[in-house]
Design brief:
The complex is a heterodimer of chains A (about 375) and B (about 400).
Chain A lengths: L6 H17 L2 H8 L7 H10 L17 H14 L5 H14 L2 H13 L4 E4 L15 E5 L2 E12 L6 E8 L2 E8 L5 E5 L9 E12 L10 H37 L1 E2 L2 E2 L4 H29 L5 H27 L10 H13 L4 H14 L3
Parallel strand pairs in A: 1-4
Antiparallel strand pairs in A: 2-3, 3-7, 4-5, 6-7, 8-9
Chain B lengths: L6 H17 L14 H16 L18 H13 L8 H14 L2 H13 L4 E4 L15 E5 L2 E9 L9 E7 L10 E7 L5 E6 L8 E12 L3 E2 L5 H15 L4 H18 L1 E2 L2 E2 L4 H31 L9 H20 L12 H8 L10 H12 L9
Helix pairs in contact in B: 1-3, 3-7, 4-5, 4-6, 7-8, 7-9, 8-9, 9-10
Classes of the chains: A alpha+beta (about 375), B alpha+beta (about 400).
């Protein structure tokens, strides 16, 4: 047993850290935040050249064919850099195509995703803002050999830059997964700016958008299972990103506590400050245990995988916010300014907390598995 | 990363699981609130003897001292299997996890031969005499003194918060042997026979009514010089060895008890009613129970991660330093959730033998004993995060 990243995974992580330190400096993050899509074509291509866009895509589709544990080593560094743009959205969509697509669809979409030529996202949430796929109501009406989509999706990440949106809709046969390409007739995308400008949210409206029946992913009853599996992967990657944000906040705050002087001494000598730093460390390392375990469980298809994901996201959701709270507090006035970078991480932690379900949502998931299902 | 067990580890687990299935005794019939006394103590002692006879006591000790030379991962597996089988804990825990390993590390050949087998078999129960009324977190300021008289030390003074002293046969005692040097340099560790004349153990009644700790008074107690553990005036380094072992052992055993409490609480929640429905279906209580599950699971994972690092790299990782904070503060939160889940009956001595109020009150000590939460946070801040030291030790 080895409950740690392997040597190779640590090397991969170090190279990712170096890459983002070079290519995704805070100035670039801030410049991208001010744009509509937070997308930087040059940065995206550089990430693709590193293999990041196809990290867990099988080699036959141009990816590196690595595991989710390898991916979290990199995702943690994306969180440390507060990387803007559609990485998570594209990962979510790619995982869905991998799980639900047929051979042709995988080839059609995964190859360009690996190459950095295609950005994608998944449209799941509706007005109910419920992460449970059972809550999906958007209609996919059959019209001959086509589906017709009518309605709206909300909180769709990166829809404004995505070349492909996979829409989770409800047909007569149950859930359907329909790929809709950018510029489709009847498709309207409206930006809905929110707390975190590094992750752009949109409302996507469908006015009788046509999708050929043959394009639908997963013509089986396994649609929901495929969606859940893909979401688990993206969720674990998100948790790893959150972990990276916590690690950055912890390190930055401890460094500040060592240098900032008050009453003639560094503030880090005072126990009121020390103990908050210790709490930040405790939360960060606890999150690390949960994230590593979830990545392993999902990657190995363990029977406990879904529970492990909910433990990780349930914990990270509260922990990332709390680490941010303490970090801002210890920074004092400067931590409350627009100028200091801690605000970027603080806002990112908040939007990440909500994405794929907050702690309340995942505690109920845990309750269903631990309290309701007896063995 | 690889969380799979090797085939040897699986074999170890299967063997242990089979043994536990066949040998775990029925739960103790009476109240377990009086933690280690009377019938309950005898029940636990018999259990450890059985565990010892089958070769499962002190598995991480070297083979030459009666252990199996097992790796820490096996120790972690043992813990999980113990929890799974709902097996009682081993009563001689201080001997097994702290004092035995310290004797192995710094003891003489005679001391090893004399003491180690009896720790494993529970023939002799051990306690640990570190804390004093005026030396809590600042243990090295201790005042219990020992003066040399030919080939004996004469010990005078008082210890406090001594778990198991009321049943212990032996004590690892820290005493001041040189008052004229800086405090860390005048301490000696002694192995003291608790049946010696002049040893007086007085139970210390706690807020929950039990007395699991004691005050121990030493009045001209004679201890042979041969019973010095380590070197004279080098007792602080012996104490550090003990405390390192405490950390190496991490959450072993604690998780077992906590998981059982949580399972028991969930079972109650399924049976009891609130607003005409099972309490387990109450949305607020579901949130709280799930939070407890999540925190306990993260404690288990962090513990396993720390063990894995120790096992593979032979140095404790920084995650080890947060385990004490995690389990003690978790347990306090859990006991509050338990009281809320069970509702008004939880406060009654007549419900579950008063287990829940007993535990609820007992957990107040969790953040004080074995290093207060404040000291633990100081340690994390200074030794892990590298912040400047806030006080002179």
């Amino acid at each position: 047993m080895d409950f740690d990243l392997s040597k190779a995974q640590k090397l991969l992580q170090q190279s990712a850290r170096d890459f983002f330190a070079r290519e995704c400096k805070p100035e670039r993050v801030r410049a991208l935040m001010a744009t509509d899509t937070a997308f930087d074509a040059e940065l995206w291509q550089a990430m693709a050249d590193q293999g990041f866009t196809g990290l867990i895509i099988p080699e036959e589709y141009g990816g590196l064919g690595l595991s989710l544990v390898d991916l979290i080593a990199v995702a943690e560094e994306m969180g440390r850099a507060c990387l803007p743009g559609p990485f998570l959205s594209t990962l979510w969509a790619a995982s869905l195509i991998q799980h639900a697509g047929n051979e042709g669809q995988r080839k059609q979409y995964l190859e360009p995703i690996s190459a950095g030529e295609l950005k994608a996202t998944v449209a799941l949430l509706e007005e109910s803002a419920d992460w449970n796929p059972d809550a999906v109501e958007l209609r996919a009406e059959k019209d001959g050999k086509e589906y017709r989509l009518r309605g709206a999706k909300h909180f769709v990440t990166d829809a404004g830059i995505a070349d492909l949106i996979i829409v989770v809709a409800r047909g007569d046969e149950g859930l359907v997964l329909l790929p809709v390409e950018k510029g489709a007739t009847g498709l309207t995308i409206t930006a809905t700016p929110g707390i975190d400008a590094t992750r752009k949210l949109c409302t996507v409206e469908f006015d009788n958008v046509a999708v050929p029946e043959a394009n639908a992913l997963a013509f089986t009853t396994k649609t929901k299972a495929a969606l859940e599996s893909a979401t688990d992967i993206a969720n674990v990657a998100l948790c790893a990103e959150m972990l990276g944000g916590m690690q950055w906040t912890l390190e930055t705050t401890v460094e500040y506590a060592k240098t900032r002087q008050q009453f003639g001494k560094p503030i880090g000598i005072y126990q009121a400050v020390q103990h908050q730093c210790a709490d930040m460390f405790n939360l960060t390392e606890s999150a690390r245990s949960a994230v590593y375990n979830a990545a392993w469980a999902v990657s190995e298809n363990e029977p406990t995988a879904k529970l492990a994901v909910s433990v990780a996201k349930g914990f990270c959701s509260d922990a990332a916010r709390e680490v941010g709270n303490r970090g801002v507090q210890i920074h004092g006035g400067i931590g409350f300014t627009w100028e200091h970078n801690i605000q970027l991480y603080y806002k990112r932690a908040k939007s990440s907390e909500i994405q794929f379900g907050d702690a309340n949502y995942h505690r109920e998931e845990i309750a269903r598995r631990v309290i309701d299902e007896t063995d | 990363m690889d969380l799979n067990l090797t085939s040897e580890q699986q074999q170890f687990r299967d063997e242990l699981r089979a043994w536990l299935a066949a040998n775990v005794p029925p739960p103790f019939a009476g109240s377990t609130n009086e933690e280690e006394k009377g019938e309950h103590f005898e029940y636990l002692r018999r259990w450890q003897r059985k565990v010892f006879d089958a070769g499962w006591a002190g598995i991480s000790w070297p083979k030459e001292y009666g252990g199996r030379g097992a790796a820490l991962i096996e120790q972690a597996i043992l813990t999980e299997e113990w929890a799974r089988a709902e097996a009682p804990q081993l009563i001689n825990q201080l001997g097994l996890s702290l004092i035995g390993p310290t004797i192995i590390a710094v003891g003489t050949a005679e001391q090893k031969a004399r003491f180690l087998p009896r720790i494993l078999s529970c023939e002799e129960v051990w306690c640990q005499g570190f804390s004093e009324p005026n030396s809590g977190s600042d243990v090295a300021s201790l005042a219990t003194k020992a003066t040399l008289d030919d080939d004996h030390f004469i010990v005078n003074g008082q210890k406090i918060w001594t778990s198991l002293a009321h049943v212990a046969d032996w004590c690892l005692l820290l005493v001041r042997t040189d008052p004229n040097v800086p405090k860390h340099k005048g301490i000696t560790a002694l192995l003291v026979d608790m049946h010696s004349p002049g040893v007086d153990v007085r139970p210390l009644k706690q807020m929950n009514g039990d007395a699991s700790f004691n005050e121990v008074f030493f009045d001209n107690v004679r201890v042979p010089v041969a019973n010095v553990l380590g070197e004279i005036n080098k007792g602080w380094s012996t104490a550090i060895t003990t405390l390192m072992n405490e950390r190496a052992h991490l959450g072993t055993g604690i998780y077992v008890a906590f998981k059982r409490n949580l399972d028991q609480l969930i079972a109650h929640a399924r049976q009891m009613k609130r607003n005409g429905k099972p309490t387990a279906q109450d949305p607020v209580m579901r949130q709280k129970l799930a939070q407890a599950f999540m925190e306990l699971e993260i404690f288990r994972l962090t513990n396993t991660r720390a063990l894995s690092k120790m096992n593979n790299q032979h140095v404790p990782g920084p995650e080890g330093s947060i385990l004490k904070i995690q389990w003690s503060e978790y347990n306090q939160r859990f006991q509050q959730i338990a009281m809320e889940t069970l509702g008004p009956v939880a406060q009654l001595h007549g419900f579950d033998n008063g287990k829940w109020i007993y535990d609820f009150l007992r957990t107040r000590a969790n953040t004080i004993e074995a290093g207060t939460s404040e000291i633990q946070r100081n340690i994390v801040a200074e030794r892990v995060l590298g912040l400047p030291k806030s006080y002179q030790s």
